[in-house]
Design brief:
Layout lengths: L4 E8 L3 H8 L10 E2 L7 E8 L2 E13 L3 E8 L6 E10 L2 E9 L9 H30 L1
Antiparallel strand pairs: 1-7, 2-3, 3-4, 4-5, 5-6, 6-7
Helix pairs in contact: 1-2
Family: Belongs to the AHA1 family.
Pfam family, one: AHSA1
Protein name: SRPBCC domain-containing protein
């Protein structure tokens, strides 16, 4: 294993507020399989189908400072422990840096490949968040 955590960073050409809206209430545009409310204690569930079988990850929102930080803890059946995710949004004028950190890989008791699989998954999801947020920002400019 490379380490206990992974970090993925992306820059989005949209305001912190637009990115936050897409991350939370507009999530169905870029991650329809994930459900939660941006409120500490809210249940969080992601479902997907892989190799003909449905997968489920579940947990709860652990940290929420609108519009800058969203944190949650989640796990899947077969893991020995949960993973913690923190998504931080930092505005820079008309753009936003998104820094996602997921930690706890040493405690899940799964193959080392889980960390690289999650890193690839987060890159995929953050690219979709970027597209949705930037489209929202363009739509707002046109209105």
């Amino acid at each position: 294993m490379v380490g206990d955590s992974l970090t993925v960073v992306t820059e989005i050409r949209a305001s912190v507020e637009d990115v936050w809206r897409c991350l939370t209430v507009g999530r169905s545009a870029w991650w329809p399989e994930m459900r939660f409310e941006a409120v500490v204690g809210s249940p969080l569930v992601e479902t997907w189908v892989e190799d003909g079988r449905q997968g489920v990850a579940s947990g709860s929102v652990t940290h929420c400072v609108e519009p800058h930080v969203l944190g949650f803890r989640w796990s899947e059946d077969g893991w020995d422990g949960p993973l913690d995710v923190e998504i931080e949004l930092v505005g820079h004028g008309d753009s936003t840096s998104v820094r996602l950190t997921e930690s706890g890989f040493s405690g899940v008791g799964t193959p080392d490949s889980l960390q690289s699989e999650h890193e690839a998954g987060w890159r995929y999801h953050l690219a979709r968040l970027k597209s949705a947020s930037e489209a929202r920002a363009v739509d707002a400019d046109v209105s």
